[in-house]
Design brief:
The structure is a homodimer. By secondary structure, chain A is α+β, with helices and mostly antiparallel strands. Chain A contains ten helices and nine strands.
Chain lengths: ~260, ~260
Amino acid sequence: MGGNTREPSRSAADRLLSLLAAFSSDRPSLTLSELAEAGSLPVSTAHRLATVLTEWGALERHADGRFHIGLRLWYVGALAPGHRDLRSVAMPFMEDLYEATHENVQLAIRDGKRALYLDKISGSQSVATLTEVAGHLPLHATGVGKIILAFSEPRLLADVVADGLARCTRHTITLPGVLAETIAQVRETRLAYSLEEMTVGASSVAAPIFGADGTLVASLALVVRSSANVQALAAAVRTAALGVTRQLSPPISTGWKSKLDR
Amino acid sequence: MGGNTREPSRSAADRLLSLLAAFSSDRPSLTLSELAEAGSLPVSTAHRLATVLTEWGALERHADGRFHIGLRLWYVGALAPGHRDLRSVAMPFMEDLYEATHENVQLAIRDGKRALYLDKISGSQSVATLTEVAGHLPLHATGVGKIILAFSEPRLLADVVADGLARCTRHTITLPGVLAETIAQVRETRLAYSLEEMTVGASSVAAPIFGADGTLVASLALVVRSSANVQALAAAVRTAALGVTRQLSPPISTGWKSKLDR
């Protein structure tokens, strides 16, 4: 993925992308030599490519000489349909949920074997979480992730188990049998919990959002202090997720509906 | 910017970036031949580069054969500091503002001679606007844009005027003298209005967010139905913008403050 091996045959395109791949939420800024190392490139090549990227706006170089991701890459990236379309449909429902609870509201989708957070609402009173918009978290330790495991092809659960169930806190489910049982329950109840399994002090409840074809599109969650009664919020999350699901499905008869609406 | 001229000496990096530059909110998906045309490339070259970009995750190809921006470009792009840091500080204040008003709340920064929208909150009752997250709008026709004109170097206003003041609606200020007078007033009152100047039916009030060094960082706005009393919301926007400004400035004496806080 990262292109971290030296191959004389690597194309210029690969080299350019390896520079972008060097950035992550853990490493949001890099020096030129860090960039060169991450891309397995001579410093002179890294400098030339970083200059092209900076001129275009994919990177920006700050006064301290460090490179950051540039705003143009952000606004081009924001054209990704998964982000743009789903976010605009889900946002009003997420707002309602926030207003009703004042807790963290999170929207996540599957990205390979991880949950990718598309959007997040949190007020000044909400509990601190590890979630960042555009950040990834493991599937087995999060409420949104368990929803993804429950409503994806069964091979995903097997793959996640095969990779090993990392212990994020002492409450994380690390036994494959226990996880399989939990996921079967999630499939039945259409609700998933994470009880301090990702972050000590925070619990979550998540519900699925389905597309018009009935497949899972995303997962919506509330994350609250673990002292709160997270079960009591399940109905609110489910209601909001059903609202988004309904918006994603075309009405049964458009002609009839539009007559009533207009 | 777009690399739309045929130059035999164009580097591979330039060609790759010209494919990404082909996407915009008006053209969020393209066929292979549209991509080739936008990048001024032979179809075979465009195909090879688009394949590299798709494998990396910068593009995705849908079942209908059209290319879209890929999720990986979105989450790498979201590492841009202007977006990430400012958004996380501003979000709780934007939430408060939304909850108090249930109107559109928008956060914008300057991007060259346009306003770039970093974030937006809108509920189901909020008035429809042209604003998209990661989208651009002109400076002279928007509340956030007038704030940017008022608190940037004077050359910006001159440049915007020199480019011509496009008429977005029949209420848009298109006379340079009137715009200059308006901007002088904005500088004095630290509030900017757009009264159906961008979208008929929608008006906005905007206030500046300053950084620790006193320079403009961003602009915060409420966008409401033009039938509403937008002036009555000025104090709310100003309060929220002052709150963000305060958070962006380090406390006068950290030692003293941290003692009280802990």
